[in-house]
Amino acid sequence: MERRAEIGVFGGSGFYSFLEDVEEVWVETPYGAPSDKIALATVEGRKVAFLPRHGKDHRYPPHMINYRANMWAMKSLGCTRIISPCAAGSLQPHVKPGDFVVSDQFVNRTWGRQDTFYDGPITTHISCAEPYCPEMRQVAIDSAKKLGITVHETGTIVVIQGPRFSTKAESREFARNGWEVINMTQYPEVVLAKELEMCIVNIALITDYDAGLEDDPTVEPVSHEAVIKVFNENNDKLRKLLFEIIKNLPKERACQCGEILKHSRA
Q1: Active site residue 210
Q2: CB 20 within 8 A of CB 39
């Protein structure tokens, strides 16, 4: 098998364990080792690279993931598009556990993460006004609707440092700002993809209400056990959605994601 791919997916081995002719490879990068071996496979006639962002045995908590190595590895295999699914909490009553959100904005509340490939000597300021690829977002939305999946077409995802969950006061602040989704891994994943001129889309699978709902005391605050339970219940649905997106992505990119560096340097 040629060690090349056009689409990269960050997700666990459950997404590709049943595929045939899967080749797992280590990819060396200037930024150290990625989270695990990358699995190369063919899905719907497309060459796809799968990488579990936390490692197969979930050894890396969100703040310890080598995001730069992961993204560089995908780029070095030839990927021009990244699908970035994640488990996430809801901050709004209308975004319910089991729903999917195709995020269109993020807010970064992390610190200390290596979040750029460009430390000099060429100063590089990429635009993040529209962080996610509009073409990939529309394909994701249309694919979810085709499969009958409850999907929210927009949503702001606030990324917290972790590994702890939010306090009620923090969750209340995020909700009052109007943000819909909370997660620990979307940053710096999205900006690193953009710096390498790759398209990226986020599919957030809602597993819980972050710290409960103020107006509904019967809703329990998030726990790791509850997250895993809901995620596993919806994993097959997520896998079907990912494969539908892969099938429906145009062969050629019609967006501007591949030209971002033209407008990012003096």
Answers
A1: yes
A2: no
